[in-house]
Specification:
By secondary structure, the chain is mainly α. Helix content is 75%, strand content 1%. It has 19 helices and 2 strands. The chain is globular, with a radius of gyration of 26 Å.
């Protein structure tokens, strides 16, 4: 009887039992050979398969998940899988691109053929060529090279393609701006929470490990970082966000969006100060002044110019607000005698001497950990770059930084050309101008700090610049959508006025 039952069970379920046994054995093998990381990845395969299935069915949901994950990836204690942080973004981006290729009819690939893609192909090709750069005599190290090349090259290409393909209509564009609003306000709330109620255990561990850069003036000044990687990335990110949303607010015709974007811009500007990041102030002013040239409106340009000049004078040449530590620290951004800035200049002079013998740089994947002790460039790999531009200069040489600057300039110039001459709708031009000005702001931040390719800045602002190239394709739909929204707005005003008049009778 027992044999009969076992035989029946084996015939009906034997395949599944054998499969589960094999999967369990492989999981144990991964645990024994690759550690907890490999074990976790293997066990997540069924979840990944389910996720891919749902991704094909709900493709825009995956894009929104990418936007959220990219923003909160440094919210300590939330994303806990033992895998490199870049993989979260990279997996989602590759899945989205794979879906777009398979579903090619609805993917708007024709929008990708533009100047920005051409410049990115040049830059990524150079990054690929860096694989054979053996200045430090370490040979070809593929994993290290890809880690660096992905950081400064491939992730820009990924986010360019994903943004220009998936943000394809005015409704999706507005939803994206609203999501960005929510995430920015959450970042501002989190820094308020840190100032008011203190740090979480994970955040306390981070700030203790970075006391020299985040606890200053004898412990009386704390540089807050919210949900970003560090205070510099947060400060510049908030300044850049403020630039974008204040411009969106100034140019929007729809009242509700004008109010929401304006509030977001002001709150983001406030959130910039607790970071204590001096570069952030310069980034904000740079973005606003670029808007003067892109606005094509004297009514907007003249008051912004006057207010901007007044604010610059108050910050740079007066002592107003000097009693506040954060304002005092921000003012040092305009002090040429600042000790921290002088240290950076001295470091860069030392780097320049070494790089005279390394026109291709020390190699994208080479760091202090893998450059041999007897190699002349080991010291160069150990000097803190303190700037994204300096990092690119050190690792790709004068050739690399020149190519990066040229390709970046043409990407930006092409987007400005579109804003100035190809978009007729003032409100849509305002969105394009906001992204262009934010791009200038974040680039200046990358010159002052190593934050340009950091989460969430790279995806937000390179992705935003790619959207400028897509705006002419959606302008007709935008005008129709805006007209409907304005009609609804006017109808609400009319009904409100009628109700007000009726209440007086």
């Amino acid at each position: 009887m027992a044999n009969s039952v076992f035989k029946t069970y084996a015939q009906e379920n034997g395949g599944r039992v054998l499969l589960l046994f094999l999967l369990f054995s492989l999981a144990l093998y991964q645990l024994a050979t690759s550690g907890l990381g490999g074990f976790t990845l293997f066990c997540s395969i069924p979840t990944l398969v389910l996720f891919i299935y749902l991704a094909f069915k709900y493709r825009m949901l995956v894009f929104w998940i990418l936007c959220i994950v990219n923003y909160i990836i440094f919210l300590r204690g939330i994303l806990f899988l033992p895998i490199p942080m870049s993989l979260y973004n990279e997996i989602l981006e590759i899945i989205l691109l794979a879906i777009a290729i398979i579903d090619v009819k609805d993917s708007h690939f024709e929008r990708c053929a533009n100047l920005m893609l051409f410049m990115l192909i040049i830059w990524c090709s150079f990054c690929t060529l860096q694989l054979i750069n053996d200045t430090c005599d370490v040979g070809i190290q593929f994993a290290e090279w890809y880690s660096g090349a992905r950081k400064i090259g491939f992730q820009i290409l990924y986010c360019f393609l994903v943004y220009i393909i998936y943000i394809s209509t005015p409704k999706i564009l507005i939803k994206y701006l609203i999501l960005w609003t929510i995430l920015s306000l959450f970042a501002a709330f989190w820094v308020w929470k840190q100032k008011t109620f203190g740090f979480t255990p994970s955040e306390s561990q981070f700030i203790e490990a970075h006391r020299t850069t985040h606890i200053l003036q004898g412990g009386t000044l704390i540089r807050y970082f919210s949900i970003y990687s560090d205070a510099a990335a947060f400060g510049v990110g908030m300044a850049t966000t403020a630039v974008a949303f204040l411009i969106f607010s100034l140019t929007s015709k729809i009242t509700k969006y004008r109010i929401v974007f304006g509030i977001t811009g002001v709150i983001s500007l406030w959130a910039m100060f607790p970071s204590g990041t001096r570069t952030a102030m310069a980034c904000f002013f740079a973005g606003i002044f670029v808007f003067i040239f892109l606005s094509k409106s004297f009514k907007i340009a003249i008051p912004i110019t006057l207010v901007g000049i007044l604010a610059f004078i108050l910050i740079a040449f007066t002592n107003i607000g000097q009693g506040n530590q954060m304002i005092r620290r921000m003012r040092t951004a305009f002090d040429r005698k600042d000790a921290s800035a002088n240290v950076r200049t001295i470091n860069q002079q030392a780097m320049k001497k070494y790089l005279q013998d390394a026109p291709w740089g020390i190699g994208i994947g080479n760091t202090y950990q893998n450059v041999p002790a007897n190699n002349k460039f080991r010291k160069l790999s150990a000097i803190p770059p303190d700037s994204e531009y300096v990092w690119i200069w050190v690792h790709t040489g004068i050739i690399g930084i020149t190519i990066f600057l040229i390709t970046t300039f043409f990407m930006f110039a092409g987007a400005c050309w579109i804003v100035l001459f190809r978009i007729t709708s003032p409100s849509l031009r305002g969105i394009g101008a906001g992204f262009c000005c934010a791009f200038v702001s974040i680039q200046l931040g990358g010159y002052g700090n190593q934050i340009l390719m950091q989460f969430p800045n790279c995806v937000l602002y390179y992705g935003g610049l790619s959207l400028v190239y897509a705006l002419p394709y959606m302008e007709k739909e935008w005008i129709e959508w805006e007209s409907k929204e304005l009609a609804i707005q006017e109808e609400k005003k009319r009904l409100k006025l009628e109700k007000k008049r009726a209440s007086r009778v």
